[in-house]
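sorry for the late reply, my laptop died twice this morning and i had to redo everyting from scratch. anyway the thing you sent over, i finally got around to it. pasting the sequence first so we're on the same page, its 190 residues, then the predicted structure underneath. double check i copied it right bc i was rushing
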Amino acid sequence: MKKDLGVKPYLFPMPVLMIATYGDNDVVDVMNMAWGGICAENMVSLNIGEDHKTSENIKKRGAFTLSIADIPHIEAADFFGIATGNKMPDKFERTGLTAVKSEKVDAPIVEEFPLTLECKVIEDKMEVYGHHVIGEIVGILADEAVLDEKGRVEPAKLNAFVFDQFQNGYYAIGEKVGQAWSTGVPLMKK
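ok and here's the structure:
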């Protein structure tokens, strides 16, 4: 028997996304966010509270980078979700992480995160649910350590984790359990 839990943002897994932007005077700001993801072949969609420093920076610069947080940097990743750049101008420096300027967009790349999407803003508007941003992916950077022998990202090497909306936990991504467009093929023959 199923129990009605009401209306909650209950999907699992939720990504742990690190959005990096530049503020005034090229101050690096990074925000931990779960309300976003891929929405098309070369597009990402983000829903950000308008009061966030990241939201202000995106509006001013028209660009951001989106990185996958990894377990070795979980403390900094969680901190980026706790601290606000509006009240803590040295937020990024406190983590000890390093950033370099993207060559493709006006946004920083956090060197320690293993996978980064460089995005330019193509849609930026206020909706009833918040500040909605669509970014076009114009480049992807990956540490060689997370690539397989064919140069593709190997998920297990990312050492990524996901967010649990139910109890506010982080979970490591587990083992591969199937192959897309193959595991369900036997049912096609019924």
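Residues 63 and 106 are 6 Å apart (CA to CA).
thats about all i looked at so far, will dig more tmrw
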